[in-house]
Write a structure and sequence with these properties.
The structure is a homodimer of 277-residue chains.
Chain A lengths: L5 E3 L25 E5 L1 H13 L3 E9 L7 H4 L8 E4 L1 H8 L7 E7 L5 H6 L5 E6 L5 H13 L4 E4 L9 H6 L9 E3 L3 H10 L3 E5 L5 E2 L8 E6 L8 H6 L1 E4 L11 H15 L5
Parallel strand pairs in A: 1-4, 3-4, 6-7, 6-11, 7-8, 9-11, 9-12, 10-12
Antiparallel strand pairs in A: 2-5, 3-5
């Protein structure tokens, strides 16, 4: 950390850290492509994404004073021209608007976001893709990305009614996977699935009423798993047009969290494809 | 809903609904065995648990005025001597201390809680049990119960360092499964696992460094899955004493949420046991 200087913030209203103000109440993303990375794990992923210099860049970092030493190795992974602001607990809580016990925040910017059809066009010969339709809950979107990364999915596609995965909480729940797993968001689920079908993907829509139990899904070189909201599930147009899969479970309770359901299905599909062992 | 009377609350400080005051900031459970059930799904589970009259009873219900008609069938499942308080949105938000858009709350009481060894003694010949060690995160405990219920586990055992599953958020995330799946909490993980081993359980400790991949675990009549915290994992005494299992996943990211990991493992074990299909 030789050349790096730390800038001490004493006024919670200091304009240099305005983007971190009241972060629980608002989300930056959407307006400017800017987003808040929270916690050491996500900060580390942001450093890697910044170095890759493809889709994301880091703009500034704000740390609780007593966390600086603990994250020295992560800071060293950022170029020295990224400003690092430090503040004591009272100031940092006043900035954030709540007690921020982790004390590690960064501001990032999304440089580009792929169109679903373009991303599908760039996928490798052998691919596993997760498609989310109508996933508006930030935790669930984060959980989908975390599980997609855990099971080596090549991409996540979200329709226009799903929330932005760069929302602070989605990014945090994803443990930063949003910054590492290629994704696209936009357009209708039907359009996304059509481009996957055209690209030769074997498409499986997950539903409690699915016709094929998960473990009977035949492996294919290109596989896509489609998940919908917990309440409504996937729209009937998708369930009638594509093959449907279900996860065997208790008849008393047909209710898995969508992130968990996607995790179980991706595990099963990735194993069938021989991608994990 | 013939004989039932509704009591209108106009003062947020009305002592009759004091237990619902500022529920985000505090949790009742522990002190008195009382707990807050939130939302229609959990309310329905509380009605069933109350009728079973074994481990839980309902004490009172507080509803947003405009939700009364929508939950009529659930209210009909409670005896008429359970008071139902109603309030408008401003009053209910002032009571709860935050915007309670669901508008459905109930106060319940735990009548008894089993000791782990006693619960183990009552388990059926063929059993699947989930054991949590050091699960202090409320969402994760809720998620463990939800997945235990989805995959027909007979019981959940939690060591003394795990949090009470009746915490408001744990209960909500469990979609009320805490009120339906037998559980015990207390003592050390070692003591719980010893009583399971004595009862002939095949015990599998889940760990990223586990020796046996999940799908190679041999089925047994009595199986127990043991999960630990996300950060620390299970203590080494458990990992050396018992068989260990891992979930095949990307070598780049060895990180599943503990609830998701338990869901994947329970799915696999319940299938191996022929309990779900």
């Amino acid at each position: 950390m030789s050349g790096r200087t730390f800038i001490t913030i004493e006024d919670p209203k200091d304009p240099r850290i305005a983007e971190f103000s009241q972060i629980r109440e608002r989300d930056l993303t959407g307006r400017s492509g800017r987003f808040i990375a929270e916690g050491t794990v996500v900060l580390r992923m942001l450093a890697a994404a910044h170095r890759a210099a493809r889709d994301f860049r880091a703009e500034k970092i704000l740390l609780l004073k007593n966390r600086v030493d603990g994250v020295g190795d992560i800071l060293a992974a950022f170029p020295e021209d990224i400003p690092v602001y430090i503040a004591d607990a009272a100031v940092i809580d006043a900035i954030a608007g709540f007690h921020l016990h982790r004390g590690v925040l960064a501001l990032g910017q999304r440089l580009s976001v792929a169109e679903p059809a373009d991303l599908v066009g760039r996928l490798p010969e052998t691919s596993l893709v997760l498609v989310g339709c109508g996933i508006s809950n930030h935790d669930n979107v984060g959980s989908l990305f975390r599980n997609a990364a855990a099971f080596s999915a090549d991409a996540v596609l979200l329709d226009e009614t799903s929330c932005d995965p760069l929302y602070r909480k989605a990014l945090r729940v994803s443990v930063g996977s949003v910054l590492a797993t290629p994704y696209a968001r936009g357009g209708s689920a039907e359009a996304m699935l059509s481009s996957l079908a055209d690209a030769g993907f074997s498409i499986w829509a997950l539903s409690p009423a699915g016709r094929t139990e998960l473990s009977s899904i035949p492996a294919a070189d290109r596989m896509a798993l489609v998940v919908g909201t917990e309440g409504e599930g996937l729209p009937s147009e998708i369930l009638t047009r594509f093959a449907t899969a279900r996860i065997a479970q208790s008849p008393q309770l047909d209710s898995l969290n969508v992130g968990t359901a996607a995790g179980i299905a991706l595990y099963s599909m990735a194993r069938a494809m021989g991608r994990i062992s």
